[in-house]
Amino acid sequence: MRKFMIEREIPGVGRMSACELSDAARTSNGALAKLAPRVQWQQSYVTAGKTFCVYLAEDEEAIREHATLSGFPANVITEITGVIDPSTAVG
Prior knowledge:
Layout: E1 2-9, H1 18-35, E2 39-46, E3 50-57, H2 60-70, E4 76-80
Antiparallel strand pairs: 1-3, 1-4, 2-3
Helix pairs in contact: 1-2
């Protein structure tokens, strides 16, 4: 499986309540169940008007199918080819 960052433009997402975010996660999980094992959600980062989601997927098409099923846009899909962090400087 390849790793992707999905940028989703969702106006007002940063003001959503915990209950609303929980409902959104349930919606996403339902779509993921239909596509399993082709796509897996790892985590999402919420900002004022966007989410940045990390997914494992066979390909971009699986992510687009999830977007269609869930109703959440996949405005930008970028494959993650590596990860660096502060410990990278030591190695």
